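Bumping my old thread because nobody answered last time. Still need a sequence for this structure:
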């Protein structure tokens, strides 16, 4: 990270010399030889990434795309799946085109392929980096067995606004944790050798700042200063680059008045010159065309703008294909820019080994043996249990006992199509296991399971339709709201405990699913309140793709288990946790607000000059607070309960001073003081008390997920180095400034126990 300094602080002549030498050293003779044989049209064709829709619905050999492939006008295909179709199309490229250049086949393999894991936000709440890396490895194994060699993942956008639907696709609000997950996902997809047939190229997205869109509205403007950009939003992208990610996707939003797809500072100065990225840049879906609506010019103008900025491949829009020749003739672009883009695309194909064997991902036997296997599904079940966050457990209502009658109620109790969540494009939704199915299987013969839907997803049929797109319908019940509620109450009255399966549907979050009201829909709140009035104990199983406003539920509901959208094995995994076969250990990676009016809200905020002084959250005039709401959230970053309890003692630091080349050891004893074996995420935060620019009140700088038997104590050690203390100052120099630091270690970001040291 020492190389993050802005380019204008380097002597220009020295930089140009080093950059030229580096480029010369990386010249690939095969790629250069092929490039020299290509016509202009063939070069531009390599930069074209159309969708595979007409290949899917028509005959591959006679489709319009097939003709373009044969003419050398396609570099890759988007969203074509199955070995048979991909092999047929690849055959056209390598047998019918003049230069026989193989194609890339890209797909949104976001949180699994056929075997589906929890949504990425849910994966992040496991805080288990090796586990997350293994999910990407398994996704690559399955996708590559079915012909895919390129995934548009991971999405590493930091987001502090849960109104934004795509918060579900990321790893939450923190740049440190987000960076660790970004590296793990890239390693998982790409492995240690891209020439192996079970590895695929990863594409980090969306570059950059997409998660900070104004008003939480998708595709909207982003306006951000460089200090915040470098310290809080750019680190996960940089981490993915450092991990060797093969491709980068430009974001839809604008940055400093220029859309990212046409932003040369972003795609060339920062990404390539400062960070040294050597892979290729692809637009998001029709990103070049959409710059027209931004007011950047017609398609020819925006296509030239994108190429000049540093884009290498045009997804779906075909602006490159239809305008670059004209722009070249008119002097609006240079042939060197086209050549560089082609060179990067060919190098990616070379690195994948496609020139040696263009059919390496097209073995039918692999697909039959390696996709959606029992082993993979068992692992998905394990992962899902690790992602669940116990938000409340009054009087130890959970785990449930395997006796008596359990009433399962709610519109999300029996909907397998919604269990995988958003961006599960390759999942066979009907094969996912609904909660009703899972709880019946897990409960055993001594438990009677009864069921009632209780309500529809929302009172509004149109809103429900919009929230259940892409084959994820909840099959709206045409009975009246009163009839549905009465049926649920009849079932509940005969039960010993009620499990209420409520929350969002799968497509209530995700792309273009922004919400202004992020509470549980009112019809479900009415159902929940009616169930609570029965006097029976109620467990809320919460399905969600974002942090929700749970102010009321946090006070009235005895137990809340947030399961996100757990994936293929959802019903079984949820039941594992409900019955205590697995002790929940997830911790939040995004803050749950008291109300939507607090947004954006995040733990690593900065103080104002008039911070609220009292810890009770009481209103104080002329301090930074609300008249009608507390400052703190309902559930903070890092929060999550267990069926057991943990005690932190003996927090120590090896020295009260640190010199520039020193490191410090921070130790703490953690004891399982409860009645269950369990896992705890031990979190370390720092605070830089005085800086040349204002610093956050806390910053995550380390975490360890440990397993403890009941009664067991473990000593946990963290090593702090100078790198952990560095940040970008006003001049965008990456520095650690001398002064006093506080170090906090505990179970969430609200930890107060601390030690101090001074950097000399």
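Sorry it took so long. Here it is:
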């Amino acid at each position: 990270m020492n190389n993050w300094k802005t380019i204008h602080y380097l002597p220009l002549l020295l930089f140009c010399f080093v950059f030229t030498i580096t480029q010369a050293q990386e010249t690939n003779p095969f790629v250069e030889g092929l490039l020299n044989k290509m016509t202009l049209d063939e070069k531009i064709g390599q930069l074209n990434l159309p969708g595979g829709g007409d290949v899917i619905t028509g005959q591959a050999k006679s489709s319009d795309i097939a003709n373009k492939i044969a003419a050398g006008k396609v570099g890759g295909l988007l969203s074509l799946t199955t070995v048979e179709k991909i092999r047929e199309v690849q055959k056209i490229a390598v047998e019918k085109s003049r230069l026989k250049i193989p194609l890339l086949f890209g797909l949104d393999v976001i949180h699994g392929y056929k075997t589906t894991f929890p949504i990425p936000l849910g994966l992040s709440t496991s805080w288990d980096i090796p586990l997350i890396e293994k999910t990407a490895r398994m996704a690559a194994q399955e996708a590559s067995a079915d012909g895919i060699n390129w995934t548009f993942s991971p999405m590493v956008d930091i987001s502090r606004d849960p109104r934004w639907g795509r918060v579900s696709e990321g790893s939450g609000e923190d740049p440190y944790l987000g960076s660790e997950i970004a590296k793990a996902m890239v390693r998982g997809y790409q492995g240690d050798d891209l020439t192996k047939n079970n590895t695929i190229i990863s594409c980090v997205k969306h570059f950059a700042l997409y998660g900070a869109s104004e008003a939480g509205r998708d595709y909207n403007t982003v306006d951000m200063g460089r200090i915040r950009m470098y310290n809080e939003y750019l680190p996960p992208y940089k981490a993915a680059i450092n991990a060797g990610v093969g491709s980068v996707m430009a974001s839809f939003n604008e940055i400093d008045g220029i859309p990212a797809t046409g932003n040369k500072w972003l795609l060339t100065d920062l990404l390539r010159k400062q960070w040294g990225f050597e892979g290729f840049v692809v637009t998001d879906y029709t990103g070049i065309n959409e710059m027209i609506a931004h007011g950047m010019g017609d398609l020819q103008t925006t296509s030239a703008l994108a190429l000049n900025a540093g884009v290498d491949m045009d997804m779906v829009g075909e602006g490159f294909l239809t305008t670059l020749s004209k722009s070249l003739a008119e002097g609006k672009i240079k042939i060197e820019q086209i050549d560089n883009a082609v060179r990067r695309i060919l190098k990616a194909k070379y690195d994948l080994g496609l020139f040696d064997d263009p059919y390496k991902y097209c073995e039918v036997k692999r697909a039959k043996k390696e996709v959606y296997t029992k082993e993979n599904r068992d692992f998905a079940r394990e992962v899902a249990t690790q992602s669940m966050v116990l938000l409340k457990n009054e009087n130890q209502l959970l785990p449930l006992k395997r006796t008596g009658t359990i009433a399962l109620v709610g519109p999300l109790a029996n909907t397998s199509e919604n269990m995988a969540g958003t961006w599960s494009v390759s999942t066979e939704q009907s094969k996912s296991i609904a909660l009703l199915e899972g709880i019946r299987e897990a409960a055993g013969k001594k438990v009677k399971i009864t069921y009632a839907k209780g309500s529809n997803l929302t009172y509004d049929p149109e809103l429900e339709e919009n929230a259940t797109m892409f084959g994820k319908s909840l099959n709206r019940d045409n009975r009246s709201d009163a009839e549905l509620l009465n049926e649920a109450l009849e079932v509940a009255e005969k039960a010993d405990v009620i499990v209420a399966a409520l929350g969002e549907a799968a497509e209530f979050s995700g792309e273009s699913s922004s919400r202004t009201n992020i509470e549980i829909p009112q019809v479900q709140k009415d159902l929940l309140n009616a169930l609570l009035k029965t006097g029976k104990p109620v467990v809320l199983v919460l399905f969600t793709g974002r942090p929700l406003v749970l102010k009321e539920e946090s006070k009235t509901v005895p137990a809340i288990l947030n399961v996100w959208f757990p994936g293929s094995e959802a019903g079984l995994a949820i039941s594992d946790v409900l019955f205590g076969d697995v002790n929940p250990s997830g911790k939040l990676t995004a803050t749950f607000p008291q109300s939507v009016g607090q947004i954006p809200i995040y733990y690593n905020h900065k103080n104002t000059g008039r911070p609220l002084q009292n810890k009770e959250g009481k209103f104080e005039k002329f301090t930074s607070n609300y008249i009608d709401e507390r400052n703190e959230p309902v559930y903070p970053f890092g929060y999550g309960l267990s069926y057991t309890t943990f005690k932190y003692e003996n927090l120590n630091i090896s020295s009260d001073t640190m010199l520039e080349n020193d490191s410090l050891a921070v130790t703490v004893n953690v004891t399982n003081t409860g009645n269950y074996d369990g896992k705890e995420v031990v979190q370390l935060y720092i605070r830089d008390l005085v800086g040349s620019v204002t610093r956050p009140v806390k910053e995550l700088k380390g975490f360890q997920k440990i397993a403890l038997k009941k009664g067991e104590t473990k000593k946990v050690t963290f090593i702090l180095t100078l790198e952990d203390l560095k940040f970008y100052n006003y001049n965008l120099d990456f520095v650690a400034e001398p002064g006093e630091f506080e170090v906090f270690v505990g179970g969430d970001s609200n930890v107060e126990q601390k030690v101090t040291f001074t950097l000399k």
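Residues 1-25 have pLDDT under 50 and may be disordered. Let me know if any region looks off to you.
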